[in-house]
Every structure is written in structure tokens, then in C-alpha cells.
Design goal:
Elements lengths: L5 H17 L3 H19 L4 H20 L2 H38 L17 H16 L9 H9 L12 H8 L7 H34 L6 H32 L17 H7 L2 H18 L4 H20 L3 H12 L2 H5 L17 H22 L3 H11 L14 H16 L16 H18 L12
Helix pairs in contact: 1-2, 2-6, 3-4, 3-5, 3-6, 4-5, 8-9, 8-17, 8-18, 9-15, 9-16, 11-12, 12-13, 13-15
């Protein structure tokens, strides 16, 4: 069930009431969360719930071995635990990718082989919960976790339903610290959570799903469209992806606040980023921070003798993994590599760690506006690699965009009301860009009837645009 489905609303209201009414202590509250998470996951992948629970039990047992082991055997137990997680990830997500490419390579060098592709169903959320498990095992190995949580606490951490299919990818220590203690109901958290949930619903259901009615036909009929139509469609897709993903993250974070739990922030208004490094500090933050801690930082230390080129190599490897994390397709791999290459001018120019000034005023400075526009256009073009089915389709997109047809009138119908919705979302997020999310403190100083009138308008728009739960882009990862 999607977080924006009527079935989830019914499910969550029941869980919410049981959680706060019967949750007399942390154990009961965690038991309710685990049961709810199992029901939630069963609704998506009933055949894979057992696999998830068995993997949780196995990695928990291995974490205890890592914790108790001496330094000489600690790394071996951690490698075993990571192997347990990676083997299932490699099988379900990457097995056919490897088979196809090995077959194509052998065919290319003259061997006549048969391509044996398996019919493999991808367990929902496997990329997200796999990184939670691996991060936990590495934190135990590196002695960042001073006490092993209970099996119940660890199970809740891995399977926590609001973030199961969307992230954020939480780290074990801050999450488990919260659920070790009984959560007390807070009206402030409740109000704040509802605001973030409402804003997430607006971005996902009203903005992203409205844009999808334009971008879906564009990507289906791209071969008949001119360059200007494809460029505008790519811009719209970039905004759609942001509204879809960040909106779903806002829903997950808001729901967590309703349960008295704080999870990792995942977006900090990335559409207003001023360069590539700034963008990835604000986009899918939990993934980039996870890879920074466990991949980039160790590699940059390993390559430090090579100076700036060692730093570049570490970043390229890091973004190669980001691309591969998204899917077992070459266009995702190239997507990651291109993002890594965007850092090269920053590193060679000594601007990687430079903090960019952000105006506190209503309007951006000329320099800020220029940087935002260049970064937005750059990532619009990069996200084509993310949105297409394969590299051949990406090639056709780029070929048409960088042709004379770019200067023709776009040959697709555009809905003006969608432009209004996009402008409203971006304007409100620009005004509130120094907050955690757009509605956090917006209109707090205004009279109550003004605030509630604004909320009712958003609620009306959510129900007006909601017809049936549409797909969620990041569910496939």
C-alpha cells in the first residue's frame, strides 16, 4: 500500500490509536510498530516477508558476534554479515544484469552462448533496507554502537514501515536511541507532523501526479517530438521527480513525527542548489551521507597520496555506486558517472568545500540566480539518463535537444494549470527555504483563520486531484 492510498489511511489510523492508547512502555510501542511494519510489507510483497525477517534475524545474530569478537576476528564476522545482505541484493537486483552483459560480451568475442534470463521478482524496498543492515553492521564493527539493541528494536529499525519503500535511509544509532525509550504523545510533534504530511501529499498528489499527465505521453512519443518539446519535458520530469520523491519523503517524516520518532532529513530544497556538490548535499541526503561515510571517506583516505586526482577517483567510484544502487541498467551507471564528473571542475578549481552564500531576502542575487539556473539546466539534462528506458533512448533525446529543432515551437499540448501548481510549489519553498519543510513555520505569525484557511485550500486540492493512487517512482528501487 502506498502512503497516499485510502487503505493506508485506514491502516494508519488503527495503528496510531493502538500505538498511543496501549503503548504503556517502549516494548509495547515497538511491538506495535513491528506488527504494523510486517502488515505493511506483507501488503506489498507477501512472498518476501519471510525473507526479510530471516535476514533481520541472521544479521542481528552476526552483529552480536561482531560486538563480542576481538579485533582480529571482528572484520571476518562483519564481512560475513555484509555478504549475507549483498548476496540477496545481487541475486534479486543484479543477477540478470550480469548474465545479460556476460552473454553479450561472449557473443562479441565470438562465442555462441545461450542467454538464460531468470524471471526474478524484486522484493520491494530491498535497496533501502539492505543499506540499513549494512550500515548497522559497519557501525558495530567500527565500535560506533556501544550496546547491541534488542532483536525487537533492531527489527523495527530495519523494517520501519514509513521509510520502507522511500527512505530516508536511517542510521541505527540515532534511530534505536529513540525507540529504546517510551515515546510520549506531543501535540507539537503531532501538529508539525500533520503539516509535513500535508505538504508531502500536496507535492506528490497535486504537483507530481499532475506533471505526470504531461511527461508520460512525452516519453512514450518522444520520437515524434522536436527538441524544444523534449527539453521542456525533461525540465518537467526533473520537477516531477523532485515533487514525487521529496513529497513521499515528507509523508514518511511527517508520519514518523505523529509516532514520536524523528527520521533522517532527505531533502533540503535541491532545486535551488548552485552547483553539483550543493545539489547532492540537498538531494537524497540519507543515501549520499551513507555512501560518504562508508565509501567516499575510506576511499579518499586510501587515495590521499594522489592529491586532487585521488579525490576525483574516490568521488567517481562513489557516484558509480549511486548509479548502480538505482538499478541494474547501463543508463543508471552512466547517470552516476556523469554526476561524479560534475565534481571534477569543482575539485580542480578548489571549490569543492566552498560554502555558497545564500541570500536571506525574498529575491536571489544575480550571481545566485545564475548559479541556480545553470545547475537546474545541468541536472535537467543529467536526469534524462535517469528517466529513459535505455542508453539508446537517451541518445535520441540528446540528439534532438542539441539539434536545430530546439528552436522550434514545442509540438505538445501544455496544461497551464500545471504551470501554476509548479510555480506555487517552488515559490512557497523558496520563501521557506531556510526551514526544514515549507509549512514548518509558514503563516505561524498570522491569525488562526488565515492559517487554517490556507491548510483547507491545500486539503481541498489534495482531494480534488486525487483519483486513484498512482505509481511512486522510487518504489522500484
Amino acid at each position: 500500500m502506498l502512503l497516499n492510498s485510502y487503505f493506508f489511511i485506514f491502516f494508519f489510523i488503527i495503528l496510531f490509536l493502538i500505538y498511543w492508547r496501549l503503548g504503556k512502555n517502549a516494548t509495547i510501542q515497538n511491538g506495535v510498530l513491528l506488527l504494523g511494519s510486517c502488515i505493511f510489507y506483507f501488503s506489498w510483497s507477501p512472498q518476501f516477508l519471510i525473507l526479510l525477517l530471516v535476514t533481520i534475524a541472521a544479521t542481528f545474530y552476526i552483529s552480536k558476534k561482531i560486538f563480542a569478537a576481538d579485533d582480529s576476528s571482528r572484520k571476518w564476522w562483519s564481512r560475513l554479515g555484509i555478504l549475507v545482505v549483498l548476496l540477496q541484493l545481487l541475486y534479486f537486483k543484479y543477477f540478470n544484469f550480469f548474465i545479460e552483459n556476460i552473454h553479450d560480451f561472449l557473443q562479441h568475442i565470438g562465442f555462441d552462448t545461450q542467454k538464460n534470463i531468470l524471471s526474478i521478482i524484486l522484493p520491494i524496498g530491498i535497496s533501502f533496507y539492505s543499506f540499513r543492515m549494512i550500515g548497522y553492521l559497519l557501525d558495530v564493527r567500527n565500535k560506533k554502537i556501544k550496546e547491541i539493541p534488542s532483536l525487537l528494536e533492531y527489527s523495527v529499525f530495519v523494517s520501519y514501515f514509513p521509510t520502507m519503500i522511500s527512505g530516508p535511509i536511517d542510521r541505527a544509532l540515532p534511530f534505536v536511541k529513540q525507540i529504546k525509550l517510551k515515546r510520549d504523545f506531543s501535540s507539537e510533534n503531532f501538529t508539525n507532523g500533520l503539516r509535513q504530511l500535508l505538504w508531502g501529499l500536496f507535492k506528490k498528489l497535486v504537483v507530481a501526479d499532475s506533471i505526470a499527465t504531461i511527461t508520460s505521453p512525452i516519453f512514450e512519443t518522444y520520437s515524434t517530438l522536436n527538441g524544444s518539446a523534449l527539453l521542456i519535458g525533461s525540465m518537467l520530469y526533473f520537477v516531477q521527480l523532485y515533487a514525487d520523491f521529496s513529497g513521499y519523503s515528507d509523508m514518511a517524516i511527517g508520519i514518523s513525527k505523529l509516532l514520536g520518532i524523528k527520521v533522517h532529513v532527505n531533502f533540503k530544497f535541491p532545486l535551488f542548489a548552485q552547483n553539483a556538490a550543493d545539489f547532492w548535499r540537498k538531494w537524497h541526503i540519507s543515501l549520499t551521507s551513507w555512501l560518504t561515510d562508508f565509501v567516499f571517506t575510506p576511499l579518499s583516505i586510501q587515495f590521499r597520496d594522489f592529491g586532487k586526482w585521488g579525490l576525483i577517483l574516490a568521488i567517481i567510484i562513489n557516484f558509480f555506486l549511486i548509479g548502480l544502487w538505482h538499478g541494474a541498467e547501463w543508463h543508471y551507471v552512466v547517470f552516476g558517472l556523469v554526476n561524479g564528473l560534475m565534481y571534477v571542475p569543482l575539485i580542480l578549481g578548489g571549490k569543492l568545500g566552498k560554502k555558497l552564500k545564500t541570500t536571506a531576502g525574498l529575491f536571489p542575487t544575480f550571481l545566485e540566480a545564475r548559479n541556480i539556473a545553470i545547475t537546474f539546466l545541468s541536472f535537467t539534462l543529467i536526469m534524462i539518463l535517469f528517466s529513459v528506458k535505455d542508453l539508446a533512448m537517451a541518445g535520441e533525446f540528446y540528439k534532438k535537444i542539441f539539434s536545430s529543432s530546439l528552436f522550434q515551437i514545442p509540438n505538445f499540448p501544455f496544461q497551464k494549470e500545471v504551470a501554476v501548481l509548479i510555480f506555487f510549489m517552488l515559490a512557497l519553498e523558496w520563501i521557506t527555504r531556510h526551514q526544514e519543510f515549507a509549512l514548518e513555520n509558514f503563516l505561524n505569525s498570522k491569525p488562526r483563520f488565515v492559517r487554517w484557511g490556507f491548510y483547507y485550500v491545500l486539503i481541498f486540492l489534495v482531494f480534488l486531484f486525487y483519483i486513484a493512487p498512482k505509481g511512486y517512482i522510487y518504489a522500484q528501487f
